[in-house]
């Protein structure tokens, strides 16, 4: 290959990268364009901190929804992240190859199941179970967090598994040669080396959990109230958008896009926290 | 060498898209969009109509009543399907017909001893003033109220017919007929409302003021929970559209809707 | 009290093993539940006929076709864009403020709810560009949705390729592009495939975004500008409008099996590719 070919390749890649990023930017612009005027009209603090959501009377307080989204997402991550990372480590480091060949596709299978199916299963199986054993109406924070936790497992496991298996064997062998046990080599060397991939998986999963709509609408109960117990029904920001969007015109519609902006900002904050946690750990070493 | 692979791949992809889009539209196209509840009925009617009129291709889309109205306005669809209790102001420049009516049944779990309620009790339950089943003659347990979401035609019809109802803030909200049915079917103390065509053995409809959600009582006007299904369209749609709309109001079409659980338009 | 390394290891294996076991049990339960409720309804007629009687009878053939076409088109668009962007970000630019911000922005976009993508797709592709509800609108919207996942997983996979590989390639006289194509990408393939799997999974499982852009017409799609209904959308409509729970579960069962087949196929293709290369 020659210099022109190389230049063309670089040009092509730059064009590709920019069109990809441009399309992502288009979405961001779309959301902001539709939602920002609303925030200016209504006032940020009223929008974010009022608990009165009543589009008919012009009240657009989304505080309960923000709190609910955070609870549900964090609950989902408390379930999905540890189980997922533990699973990824175990599958990669302590499981035999043939077993891994079976288990990995099974887990990735779950990624292809539509969220509506999860939601429906939640309504039919999980919600009655929670209601009988934990009380409350069954449609609650707990149910939503459980379903979401299960839904993000494939993401966490697959991406973490890739990160872990990408760690060169020489690292593991080096540790073993120094006398470490398998487990010591795993937690002192491999995991640290795979760290950025594992964190990426958690961040992507968190994004997915925060943005999930269908499954959550069916199992969370959708009452506009700040939950006092995990068995209380809640309405997340995404559920609010989906529920109200069909009928929203004018200001109500803008309110929903403004909710989209809030979601975006919440995700940015959560991601920023995650990133600073990594940076902090890295600096400590 | 890899350059060639890239070129070949791009060529294939491109020609694939071109070929796919080449298959022409030589038939007249009519698109209906809107209410997901009416969508299956519209599909069935469209199939019947197209069997007799192969020169027309009818496509039915969902997306909800609001999307249906918006689509009819922007021209993305020729006809919008809206199951709202009344059409919003922005449709005043368009024409509309009522293609069917749908009974709304108030349902409880089959194990619930309550067989009937009166209008005031229904209002009390859904507004939260009546919180316990024993206050209307049932078991001593909290009532789990389940409602549709704010934009639902079913809900606005329900609330308008009850009159003076502000839904309790404790109500659980589900966003479709099917999920309301599943929720009530799995909770012995729940009460909800849905399209009467969805009633099966897993839930039990209650009578209101002694009248039940059956065709006889609805047509007689004694069972009051009914809502219309509107079709909105612009005045200048094609003759083929008008022909289809006429078909929808014909006896054959109305009988088909009736056989599948809806109430005739007239 | 310090435990001996051997005991810590045994403990760790026990804990990790139980976590994995729990995960697998839950996941298998879900799959078995769906197949259990759905397989009885999956007959040859179900797979080969169009839906009749509003979906209460007949089959799901048009949705099968739709489920194959729509995600394929979405991946065909997103894969080159995503991998290309990942290559650009890792190989052709230096790690600086700009790339950090870009990466951050891409991560955040992964969390936007699908309904907003659907609305965007409706307003932009269906109405503004007058494409109407069709495969193309749906594929473009889905492609934008899965782009962040593909970019991030490809990026991680590419970064995981040891620099030594690149250096050896350069020292042999290869250009950057040749190195990327012949050394970096093949070694990053497993990670990229994971991203593709997740992207396919998401495309197949999406409902709201698809309904708003590709529509939900039950007719057999013949052209890129025809509307399609995917199996997920079919399940969504059957279950939520209470048309037929049996058929809904049967559709879900077919979906699960299809996804399984796609995954296995992709993995076997990938393993064959890697095996061929290492000869």
Structural overview:
The complex is a heterotrimer of chains A (285), B (266) and C (279). With 285 residues, chain A is mostly helical. Helix content of chain A is 79%, strand content 1%. In chain A, a hairpin with a 4-residue loop joins strand 1 and strand 2. In chain A, helix 3 runs parallel beside helix 6. Chain B is built from 9 helices and 12 strands. In chain B, strand 6, helix 5 and strand 7 form a beta-alpha-beta unit. With 266 residues, chain B is of the alpha/beta class. The N and C termini of chain C lie far apart (51 Å).
CATH superfamily of the largest domain in chain B: Periplasmic binding protein-like II
Gyration radius of chain B, rounded: 23 Å
Overall pLDDT of chain C, averaged?
Answer: 85
Q: Under the CATH scheme, which class of chain C?
A: Mainly Alpha
Q: Quick one: CATH class of the largest domain in chain B?
A: Alpha Beta
Strand order of the largest sheet of chain C: 1-2
Question: Strand pairing plus helix content of chain B: what structural class?
Answer: alpha/beta
SS strand fraction of chain B: 15-25%
Distance between the termini of chain B: 71 Å
Main sheet record of chain C? 2 strands, antiparallel
Largest sheet of chain B: 10 strands, mixed
Most residues in contact: chain pair: A-C, 95 and 94 residues
Q: How would you classify the helix and strand content of chain C by structural class?
A: mainly alpha
SSE run of chain B: HEHEHEEEHEHEHEEEHEHHE
Keywords, separated by commas or semicolons:
heterotrimer, A: 285 residues, MetI-like fold, 2 domains, two-stranded antiparallel sheet, 12 helices, 2 strands, C: 279 residues, mainly alpha, 1% strand
Write a short abstract of this structure:
With 285 residues, chain A is mainly alpha-helical.
Write the layout of secondary structure elements.
The complex is a heterotrimer of chains A (285), B (266) and C (279).
Chain A: H1 3-42, H2 44-49, E1 53-54, E2 59-60, H3 63-94, H4 97-111, H5 115-134, H6 141-165, H7 169-177, H8 182-193, H9 195-211, H10 214-219, H11 237-245, H12 251-284
Antiparallel strand pairs in A: 1-2
Chain B: H1 2-22, E1 28-34, H2 39-52, E2 56-63, H3 65-74, E3 79-82, E4 95-108, E5 116-117, H4 119-127, E6 144-147, H5 153-162, E7 172-173, H6 177-185, E8 190-195, E9 204-205, E10 207-208, H7 215-220, E11 226-233, H8 239-248, H9 251-259, E12 263-264
Parallel strand pairs in B: 1-2, 1-3, 5-10, 6-7, 6-8
Antiparallel strand pairs in B: 3-11, 4-8, 4-9, 4-11, 4-12
Chain C: H1 5-38, H2 44-48, E1 51-52, E2 57-58, H3 61-92, H4 97-109, H5 114-128, H6 135-160, H7 163-171, H8 176-205, H9 208-213, H10 231-240, H11 245-277
Antiparallel strand pairs in C: 1-2
């Amino acid at each position: 290959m020659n210099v022109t070919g190389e230049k063309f390749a670089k040009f092509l890649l730059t064009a590709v990268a920019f069109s990809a990023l441009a399309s992502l930017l288009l979405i961001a612009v779309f959301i902001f364009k539709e939602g920002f005027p609303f925030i200016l009209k209504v006032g940020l603090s009223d929008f974010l901190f009022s608990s009165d959501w009543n589009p008919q009377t012009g009240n657009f307080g989304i505080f309960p929804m923000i709190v609910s989204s955070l609870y549900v997402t964090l609950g989902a991550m408390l379930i999905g992240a540890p189980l997922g990372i533990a699973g990824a480590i175990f599958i990669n480091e302590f499981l035999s190859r043939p077993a891994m060949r079976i288990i990995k596709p099974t887990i990735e299978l779950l990624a292809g199941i539509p969220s509506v199916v999860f939601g429906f299963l939640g309504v039919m199986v999980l919600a009655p179970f929670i209601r009988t054993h934990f009380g409350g109406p069954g449609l609650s924070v707990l149910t939503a967090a459980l379903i979401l936790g299960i839904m993000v497992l494939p993401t966490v496991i697959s991406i973490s598994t890739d990160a872990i298996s990408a760690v060169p064997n020489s690292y593991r062998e080096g540790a073993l040669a120094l006398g470490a046990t398998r487990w010591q080599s795993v937690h002192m060397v491999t995991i640290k080396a795979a760290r950025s991939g594992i964190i990426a998986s958690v961040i992507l999963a968190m994004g997915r959990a925060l943005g999930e709509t269908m499954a959550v609408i069916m199992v969370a109960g959708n009452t506009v109230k700040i939950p006092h117990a995990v068995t209380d029904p809640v309405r997340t920001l995404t559920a609010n958008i989906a529920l109200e969007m069909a009928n929203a015109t004018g200001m109500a519609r803008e309110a929903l896009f403004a909710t989209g902006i809030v979601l975006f900002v919440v995700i940015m904050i959560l991601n920023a926290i995650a990133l600073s946690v990594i940076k902090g750990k890295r600096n400590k070493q | 060498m890899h350059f060639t692979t890239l070129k070949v791949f791009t060529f294939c992809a491109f020609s694939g898209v071109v070929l796919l889009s080449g298959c022409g539209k030589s038939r007249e196209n009519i698109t209906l969009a809107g209410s997901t509840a009416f969508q299956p009925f519209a599909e069935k009617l469209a199939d019947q109509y197209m069997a007799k009129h192969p020169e027309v291709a009818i496509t039915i889309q969902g997306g909800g009543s609001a999307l249906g109205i918006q689509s009819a306005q922007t021209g993305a669809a020729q006809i919008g399907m809206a199951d709202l209790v009344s059409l919003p102001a922005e449709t005043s420049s368009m024409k509309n017909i009522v293609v069917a009516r749908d009974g709304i049944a108030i349902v409880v779990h089959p194990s619930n001893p309550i067989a009937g309620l009166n209008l005031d009790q229904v209002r009390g339950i859904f507004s939260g003033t009546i919180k316990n089943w024993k206050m209307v003659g049932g078991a001593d347990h909290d009532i789990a109220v389940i409602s549709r979401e704010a934009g639902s035609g079913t809900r606005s019809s329900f609330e308008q017919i009850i009159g003076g109802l502000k839904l309790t803030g404790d109500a659980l909200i589900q966003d479709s007929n099917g999920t309301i049915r599943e929720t009530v079917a799995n909770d012995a103390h729940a009460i909800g409302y849905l399209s009467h065509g969805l009633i099966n053995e897993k839930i039990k409809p209650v009578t209101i003021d002694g009248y039940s959600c059956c065709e006889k009582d609805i047509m007689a006007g004694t069972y009051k929970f009914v809502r219309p299904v509107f079709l909105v369209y612009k005045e200048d749609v094609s003759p083929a559209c008008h022909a289809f709309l006429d078909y929808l109001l014909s006896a054959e079409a109305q009988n088909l809707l009736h056989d599948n659980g809806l109430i005739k338009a007239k | 009290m310090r435990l001996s390394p051997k005991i810590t290891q045994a403990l760790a294996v026990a804990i990790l093993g139980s976590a994995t076991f729990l995960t697998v049990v839950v996941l298998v339960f879900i799959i078995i539940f769906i197949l259990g409720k759905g397989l009885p309804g999956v007959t040859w007629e179900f797979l080969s006929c169009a839906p009749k009687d509003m979906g209460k009878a007949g089959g799901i053939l048009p949705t099968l076709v739709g489920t194959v076409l729509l995600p394929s088109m979405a991946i065909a668009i997103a894969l080159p864009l995503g991998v290309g962007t990942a290559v650009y970000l890792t190989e052709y630019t230096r790690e600086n403020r700009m790339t950090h911000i870009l990466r951050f922005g891409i991560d955040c976009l992964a969390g936007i709810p699908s309904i907003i993508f659907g609305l965007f797709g409706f307003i932009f592709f269906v109405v503004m560009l007058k494409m109407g509800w069709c495969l193309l609108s749906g594929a473009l919207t889905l492609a934008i949705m899965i782009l962040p996942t593909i970019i991030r997983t490809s990026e991680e996979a590419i970064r995981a390729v040891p620099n030594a590989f690149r250096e050896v390639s350069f020292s042999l006289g290869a250009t950057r592009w040749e190195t990327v194509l012949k050394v970096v990408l093949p070694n990053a393939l497993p990670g990229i495939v994971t991203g593709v799997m997740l992207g396919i999974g998401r495309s197949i499982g999406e409902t709201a975004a698809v309904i708003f852009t590709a529509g939900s017409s039950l007719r057999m799609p013949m052209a890129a500008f025809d509307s399609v209904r995917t199996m997920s959308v079919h399940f969504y409509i059957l279950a939520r409008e209470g048309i037929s729970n049996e058929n809904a579960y049967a559709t879900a069962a077919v979906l699960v099996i299809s996804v399984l087949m796609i995954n296995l196929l992709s993995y076997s293709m990938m393993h064959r590719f890697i095996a061929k290369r290492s000869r």
